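WARN retry 2 of 3 for item q-0093 after timeout on previous attempt; input resubmitted unchanged.
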Amino acid sequence: MQAPFSAPAKLAGKQARRKPVISLTPLIDVVFILLVFFMLASSFMDWRSLSLDTSAAGEPAPAEQTPFVVQISKESLRLNGDAITLEALIDKARARQPADQPVHLQPSSDTRVQGMVSILDALSAAGVQPLKLVEDPGWRPAPAQGASGDSPQGSATGAEP
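OK item q-0093 returned
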């Protein structure tokens, strides 16, 4: 007979093996770190493209059109030299005749890019097209050509015929 507290006969010669236990805590930590990394590395912004042309210097305006020049500065927004709000600009841009007349956007040197993009985005969302960016701060639309093709100011060289 066996002693009451002795090891079973089949395990007496071998040590009992414990089944390895995998801890889930380090695995959860690694998954969390990967989640945070990919959240910070990705962008959730809606990227859109804006179609924008640059105006050529000396591009003449047709005789029947008045120029539609929007001057953008840090503090103000001007349409052909007159102060205007963004809402009023959008209304006037929608009502311009003809509808295919380009809207020239002329940022000043103190204009922030985000402010310019916000105005471009608002005009595009309102369906205002075409939009043109004027890079030169001294740019003004060329005077309209007369029926004979002569400039109202005289000849280009300034010499009298």
